Amino acid sequence: MPPPVFRFAPSPNGYLHLGHALSVLLNADMARAAGGRLLLRIEDIDEARCKPEYEPAIYEDLAWLGVIWEQPVRRQSDHHAEYRAALAKLDAMELIYPAFESRTEIARIVAEREAASGESWPRDPDGGIRYPELSKPLPEAERRRLIDAGAPYALRLDMTAALARTGPLHWNESGETVTADPAPWGDIILARKDTPNSYHLSVVVDDAAQGVTDVVRGRDLFHSTAAHRVLQTLLGLPQPRYHHHRLILDGEGRKLSKSTSATGLRELRGGGATPAAIRTLAGLD
Ligand code: GLU
């Protein structure tokens, strides 16, 4: 049996904090215990939020923590052709369509519907507005016309058609079988006009390309796994085992987002914390 493959996949949109430390140390501990490998992936698809200077900072913080990862590191921005190929496959299956509304327009239309009906429109598992499938009925000629006219668009997965193809889905969560419930996500975005990928698409393509067998990540991504199972099944990709770990919350009970002096690894290191103290602060050992 080849050794299990774990990965840590930070986005270079800020400095690492205690939540990242928990995640990477769990990955490293589990990989070591299983005689496995640990890979690193830089998830830099969000060009508006990611900055190149955060990438070396990630390496520096991880090395200081004592984490050892394999080379080469996979950087998502180097793999656009692979995401395009996955999209082409889904397109050939007639499972994706261009949607032309901006986020603001969708919010406005849904607010109008809510006001008219007195009922709230369904939210997706992250609390976002579930896409009301406005562009889905557009005839092919109209889609072409809008695209040729240079209109911005997002490529969305036709979730109903996708689930009709996949049938019921499950995943292995820490050894237990969990039933996937992707329908509440609705027609998720897989790419945008100028970006050939989205988190959901790139994560499944990358995990397969890197031969990842064990995905260890925060509980905030638990429901995303249902969407990932849909894409893995449609694209014929292997399914990893999953372990969604607890999150470290701030004083107000929110998940850590940006590093602050209280939780940033650089700040803690600057204040004299040792890697062992970080383990303790992250609730390990
Ligand atoms: N890049 C994601 C993050 O930083 C993690 C994605 C994953 O582990 O699947 O939250």
Question: What does the secondary structure layout of this molecule look like, with pairings?
Answer:
Blueprint: E1 5-8, H1 18-33, E2 37-42, H2 54-65, E3 74-75, H3 80-92, E4 96-99, H4 103-117, H5 140-148, E5 154-157, H6 159-166, E6 170-173, E7 176-179, E8 189-192, H7 199-209, E9 214-218, H8 224-235, E10 241-245, H9 265-270, H10 275-281
Helix pairs in contact: 7-8
This protein binds glutamic acid.
Glutamic acid is lined by residues 9-11, 43, 203, 217, 221.
- CATH homologous superfamily grouping of the largest domain: Glutamyl-tRNA Synthetase, Domain 3
* Shape verdict: globular
Outline the biggest β-sheet: 3 strands, parallel
What fraction of residues sit in β-strands?
5-15%
Helix content: 25-40%
For the CA atoms, what is the radius of gyration?
20 Å
Ligand roster: glutamic acid
Explain this structure:
By secondary structure, the chain is an alpha/beta fold. The chain folds into two domains: 1-78 and 248-285, HUPs (Rossmann fold), CATH 3.40.50.620; 79-204, Glutamyl-tRNA Synthetase, Domain 3 (Glutamyl-tRNA Synthetase, domain 3), CATH 3.90.800.10. The chain contains ten helices and ten strands. It has helices at residues 18-33, 54-65, 80-92, 103-117, 140-148, 159-166, 199-209, 224-235, 265-270, 275-281, and strands spanning 5-8, 37-42, 74-75, 96-99, 154-157, 170-173, 176-179, 189-192, 214-218, 241-245. A three-stranded parallel β-sheet has the order 1-2-3, covered by helices on one side. Helix 7 (199-209) crosses helix 8 (224-235). The chain is globular, with a radius of gyration of 20 Å. Residues 9-11, 43, 203, 217, 221 line the site of glutamic acid. The site of glutamic acid (GLU) has 7 residues, from loops.
